Amino acid sequence: MSIFEKIVAGEIPCHKVYEDERVLAFLDVNPISEGHTLVIPKEAAETLDALSDESAAAIGRALPRICRAVMRATGASAYNVLQNNGSAAHQVVMHVHFHIIPRFQDRGLGIGWEARSLDAETGAALAEGMRKAMGNGQ
Ligand code: AMP
């Protein structure tokens, strides 16, 4: 059982920000900046690709609302939403979660962004592969 499942079950305390039937949001215990909030589905999926449509829809509905509340409560005018999947991508808690990280002048998410250009041939092949993988939209 992951630590977030224990929070959902009420076995571990949290600073709750929001809750509905499928979603829970609470403050990150080691915030990058003031107001750093985690939004999780109650469903025990490890990564985003494993999440049910029902939980995905519920998260999609709640996330912008919680972002607005974080902005209002902290006074931040910018923020990042971060969502890590897999330990190679810095996921530590193996339960889907979205970080809302307010950006202040001196605090916020640091991002390494090593962009390269996408050539037309590679782009066409990749997009086609992904369209095929999407199948009938699943
Ligand atoms: P990630 O690297 O995306 O898996 O991030 C996991 C996040 O969960 C980290 O930012 C931790 O500070 C946070 N975290 C771990 N345990 C707790 C807890 N009991 N309550 C609140 N946040 C937690």
Short description:
This protein is an alpha+beta fold.
Write structural notes for this entry.
It is built from three helices and five strands, in the order αβββαββα. The protein has 138 residues and is α+β, with helices and mostly antiparallel strands. It has a single domain, classed as HIT-like (HIT family, subunit A), CATH 3.30.428. The chain has a five-stranded antiparallel beta sheet, covered by helices on one side. A hairpin with a 3-residue loop joins strand 1 (16-19) and strand 2. It is globular and about 50 Å long. The model has no long low-confidence stretch (mean pLDDT 96). The chain binds adenosine monophosphate. The site of adenosine monophosphate has 12 residues, from loops.
Which terms would index this structure?
138 residues; alpha+beta; HIT family, subunit A; five-stranded antiparallel β-sheet; 3 helices; globular; binds adenosine monophosphate
Q: Provide the residue-averaged pLDDT.
A: 96
Tally of contiguous helical segments: 3
CA-based gyration radius: 17 Å
CATH class: Alpha Beta
What is the CA-CA span between the terminal residues?
28 Å
Beta-strand portion reads 15-25%
Estimate nothing, just give the exact number of structural domains.
1
Q: Order of SSEs, N→C?
A: HEEEHEEH
* Quantity of strands, as a count: 5
Ligands, deduplicated: adenosine monophosphate
Named at the architecture level, the CATH assignment is 2-Layer Sandwich
Which residue ranges are poorly predicted, with pLDDT under 50 across at least 5 consecutive positions? none
Largest sheet: 5 strands, antiparallel
Outline type: globular
* CATH superfamily heading: HIT-like
